């Protein structure tokens, strides 16, 4: 597209839609017009892509995830279409700032954190690698809550992201399907002696898909992310004459559950899970039947991935559709189901491993419950004489009137993977060891990755420009080529350029901090960043304990030689997670105390930026010097903000947890700061039950002073929260071993303080992190999934043909 064409198109759209001339349009009209233009460009490629999949008979993967967290799409779409620069300069010609337009777009925040963001990074990478893959999820009317602070407390406001309409989605009424909930089911014996399920008194809801094009990076591929929204079927309208009853139905896809790593056991959540699973499976089978292939070929054309346990009902739902709706027998249907499905485990935290009470499942999806019972019965039977009774009992689906969803996903699929080496090993040796005994061949590792295009090319243009200058722009298509940067480790000019690029982003963030919080920070200070959901296991509190240590150090010795540091937090707490909210409150109060104490001479500042989301991450990450990845070893399955920060030249301070271990292996011991207990030491404490935080406290004056600050009025306005936190650390024996790791953490921080003073030394470390981040590209991750688990192959744009089939959209 030329500049003139872009201008002409924009003019036309502004006239057609808003009756405005280009010169009179505001950012909102311009954003929607530009979005429409982008959509028109990508729709052509989208149509070609799916016709291509159809004519080539490509096997496709369907990635089922209850969360997607794409953030904003305008710039990403422009970049991937290869027209970002043209559009930017065209707009500049008419005095419009692309950034201003881009800011009109609301973040699509249909996820809580890492899980949803991973799904979206995968969508980007799957399309960019030319892989035939589709997302399947829920179109929540309200995304993750907006976070504000009032008196230091988190306040949650609704996220009305659809208020002005979503420019990227296409409502596909013709692809809607019915989903049945509630009612009852009984088995009827037919004349031929076979049993047939009869379902009665069900509530039928309409699932309407909204499709969004997932545009590949400059390769002509556009895949589909399909999100389902609930509606009342026209045929049922008459039943719902009162508004309250209508709301009950419509509530099904109204809100995203704001819990992260917490099981959220409520009826609506279970109904949500079944709703998007059933609609997705039905539409896949509908598509498959159009191919006119025998059932046994299903697994040659379709792979379905279960992202965490929320979509685990894929197992019984696929069984139901194959048996009840298409007449397959159990054995045949089961064989197909196991071949088609695969599952990723995302956590070892017990409270996040989903279990549903039998009574609830029976009530919400009675037929699905029947099938689950039968899967359980057959599993137990098939294991007799092969494995010991106790192992069979521990691995079955049904235990103590509960359904273990992870067990369902493992038994009903051919692959179970963890998301980092240590995590996959823990699954095999501890968490899912019994299943590893039963199905050793099903277990594998796929270390998470990130869409490096978004986190570098879009988020950090100054650094991207330096990279182009130093190593040419091949890294943009092939992230592995970032490695070439290693050739510049001793090049002082290159190091200086990298340093200057970082400074640009730090200055931008400093302005943002001033605007949003009124806090003045110096871009020359160390920007020390911890951004992630607020969770006890992630140990934001340990970060605060260290900040308080520095506070007392400066108070005791105002002349102390500390490198000025700004501690930056971003984190939402689940609204029901009161301990996490207390931590937010105490960080905010400590921040207030520190930022307003002139005697500290700006040596330390603490900034808690509200409403952490993808867009805020894109502002913070490029400006970070230090990346805080300090979870208790064994608790963080992988982490992905660790990868984003590394890619942007932040140096990591970390425990040996999740992907931190692989980051350490990639950058080398000199370019990362490791501290703390190992996973083995943590498990030893569990085994020996010999951890005593009280004992550590009693013998440690420094920790006494820091902990007492929570209850002796040193930190103001935290009477309740301070006591709660103090008690968690002493009375309740410090579940995440903060006190045990504290001094080693402080030691590592001191080393950072020391090393940062040597600008060249520090910049070399930073360079090594950028250079070795290519291995964490989600492109690599999805290629491994494609080869090992999904058995799908890339289709390249050069094989693009005009569609010859009048086939339907691929699902
Ligand atoms: C990457 C990302 C996360 C995940 O962060 P972790 O530190 O890996 O938990 C969460 N939220 C947002 C908005 C992200 O971009």
Automatic annotation (TrEMBL):
GO terms for biological process: glycogen catabolic process. Its EC number is 2.4.1.1. Gene3D superfamilies: Glycogen Phosphorylase B. It is an enzyme of class 2 (transferase). GO terms for molecular function: glycogen phosphorylase activity; pyridoxal phosphate binding. Its cofactor is pyridoxal 5'-phosphate. Belongs to the glycogen phosphorylase family. NCBIfam families: P_ylase (TIGR02093). This is Alpha-1,4 glucan phosphorylase. It comes from Tetragenococcus koreensis. The gene is glgP.
């Amino acid at each position: 597209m030329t500049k003139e064409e872009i201008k002409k198109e924009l003019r036309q759209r502004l006239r057609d839609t808003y009756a405005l001339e280009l010169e009179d349009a505001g950012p909102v009209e311009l954003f929607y017009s530009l979005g429409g233009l982008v959509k028109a460009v990508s729709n052509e490629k989208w149509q070609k892509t799916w016709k291509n999949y159809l004519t080539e008979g490509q096997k496709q993967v369907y990635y089922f995830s209850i969360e997607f967290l794409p953030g904003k799409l305008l710039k990403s779409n422009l970049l991937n279409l290869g027209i970002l620069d043209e559009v930017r300069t065209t707009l500049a010609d008419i005095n419009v700032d692309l950034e201003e337009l881009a800011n009109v777009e609301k973040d699509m925040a249909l996820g809580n954190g890492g899980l949803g963001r991973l799904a979206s990074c995968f969508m980007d990478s799957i399309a960019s690698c030319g892989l035939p893959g589709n997302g399947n999820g829920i179109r929540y009317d309200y995304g993750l809550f907006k976070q504000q602070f009032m008196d230091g407390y988190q306040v949650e406001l609704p996220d009305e992201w659809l208020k002005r309409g979503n420019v990227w989605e296409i409502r596909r009424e013709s692809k809607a399907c019915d989903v049945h909930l509630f009612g009852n089911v009984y088995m009827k014996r037919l004349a031929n002696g076979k049993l047939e399920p009869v379902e009665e008194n069900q509530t039928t809801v309409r699932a309407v898909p909204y499709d969004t094009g997932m545009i590949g990076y400059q390769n002509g591929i556009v895949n589909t992310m399909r999100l389902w929204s609930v509606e009342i079927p026209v045929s049922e309208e008459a039943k719902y004459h009162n508004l309250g009853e209508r709301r009950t139905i419509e509530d099904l896809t109204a809100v995203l559950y704001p819990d992260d790593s917490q099981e959220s056991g409520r009826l609506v959540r279970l109904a949500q899970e079944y709703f998007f699973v059933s609609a997705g499976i039905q539409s896949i089978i509908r598509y498959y039947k159009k191919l006119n292939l025998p059932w046994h070929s299903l697994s040659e054309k379709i792979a379905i991935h279960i992202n965490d346990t929320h979509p685990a009902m894929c197992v019984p739902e696929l069984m139901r559709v194959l048996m009840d709706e298409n007449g397959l027998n159990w054995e045949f249907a089961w064989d197909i189901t196991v071949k088609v499905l695969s599952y990723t485990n995302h956590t070892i935290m017990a409270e996040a491993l989903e279990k549903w009470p039998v009574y609830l499942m029976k009530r919400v999806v009675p037929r699905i419950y029947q099938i689950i019972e039968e899967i359980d019965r057959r599993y137990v039977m098939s294991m007799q004489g092969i494995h010991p009774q106790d192992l069979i009992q521990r691995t079955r689906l049904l235990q103590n009137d509960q359904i273990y969803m992870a067990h369902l996903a493992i038994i009903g699929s051919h692959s179970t993977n963890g998301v980092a080496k240590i995590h996959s090993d823990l699954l095999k040796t501890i968490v899912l060891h019994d299943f590893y005994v039963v199905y050793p061949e099903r277990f594998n590792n796929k270390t998470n990755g990130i869409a490096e295009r978004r986190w570098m090319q879009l988020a950090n243009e100054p650094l991207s420009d330096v990279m182009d200058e130093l190593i040419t722009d091949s890294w943009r298509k092939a992230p592995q080529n970032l490695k070439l940067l290693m050739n510049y480790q001793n090049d002082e000019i290159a190091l200086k350029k990298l340093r200057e690029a970082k400074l640009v982003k730090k200055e931008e963030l400093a302005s943002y901090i001033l605007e949003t919080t009124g806090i003045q920070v110096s871009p020359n200070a160390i920007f020390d960043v911890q951004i992630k959901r607020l969770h006890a296991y992630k140990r934001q509190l340990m970060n605060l304990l260290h900040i308080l240590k520095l506070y007392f150090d400066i108070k005791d010795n105002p002349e102390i030689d500390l490198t000025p540091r700004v501690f930056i937090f971003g984190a939402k707490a689940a609204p029901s997670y009161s301990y996490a909210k207390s931590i937010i409150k105490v960080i905010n109060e400590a921040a207030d105390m520190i930022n307003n104490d002139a005697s500290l001479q700006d040596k330390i500042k603490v900034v808690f930026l509200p409403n952490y989301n993808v867009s805020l991450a894109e502002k913070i990450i490029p400006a970070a010097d230090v990346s805080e990845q300090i979870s208790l070893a064994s608790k963080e399955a992988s982490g992905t903000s660790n990868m984003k920060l590394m890619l942007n030249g932040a140096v990591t301070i970390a425990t040996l947890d999740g992907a931190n271990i692989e980051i350490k292996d990639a950058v080398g011991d000199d370019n990362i700061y490791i501290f703390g207990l190992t996973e083995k030491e943590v498990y030893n404490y569990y085994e020996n039950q010999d951890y005593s935080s009280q004992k550590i406290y009693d013998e440690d004056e420094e920790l006494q002073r820091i902990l007492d600050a929570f209850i002796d009025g040193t930190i103001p306005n935290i009477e309740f929260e301070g006591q709660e936190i103090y008690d968690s650390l002493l009375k309740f024996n410090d579940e995440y071993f903060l006190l045990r790791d504290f001094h080693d953490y402080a030691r590592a921080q001191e080393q950072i303080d020391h090393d940062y003073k040597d600008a060249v030394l520090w910049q070399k470390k930073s360079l090594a992190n950028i250079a070795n981040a290519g291995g964490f590209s989600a492109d690599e991750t999805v290629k491994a999934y494609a080869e090992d688990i999904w058995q799908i192959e890339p289709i390249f744009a050069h094989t693009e043909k005009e569609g010859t089939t009048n086939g339907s959209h691929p699902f």
